[in-house]
Amino acid sequence: MNHAQQLLEQHQVPVILYSKTPCVQCDAMVRKLTKERVPFHKVDVTQDPAAYEFVTSLNYAQVPVAYTSGDEHWGGYVPAKVEALAAADIAA
After folding, report:
1. Closest Cα to residue 17, out of 26, 9, 6?
2. How many CB atoms lie within 10 A of CB 61?
3. d(CA 59, CA 30)
């Protein structure tokens, strides 16, 4: 079980959002997830070395990185992906 899968199970949410502060794209992802009512757990990669290691192991060099309960992941602010999650009825 990888880092994101552990957090998904622990927090019972469909999305783990790896981010940092400051980060304009991360803030935009938080706003979009919240607006679309998609439950998520945010992890600051600058405060959690295991999270940083996991994100870099996926070959991402920047945040945000979203990881879903379906083992899908993507980097950057991608509103269409969030809208697709909301449409899939995982919204709260």
Report:
1. 26
2. 7
3. 22
Q: Containing H/E element for 6? A: helix 3-11
Q: Report the Cα 42 to chain-centroid distance in Å.
A: 7
Report the DSSP pairing between strands 40-44 and 15-19: parallel
Token duo for residue 20? 């940092």
User: pLDDT of 47-87, one tens digit each?
Assistant: 999 999 999 999 999 999 999 988 899 999 999 999 999 99
Instruction: State the CATH class of domain 3-85.
Output: alpha beta
**Has this prediction a pTM greater than 0.85?**
yes
End-to-end C-alpha distance for the chain, whole angstroms: 25
The domain limits of the chain are 3-85
Q: Render pLDDT for 43-55 as a digit per residue (tens, 0 to 9).
A: 999 999 999 999 9
- Give the residue carrying structure tokens 């783990």: 16
Q: How many residues does the chain have?
A: 92
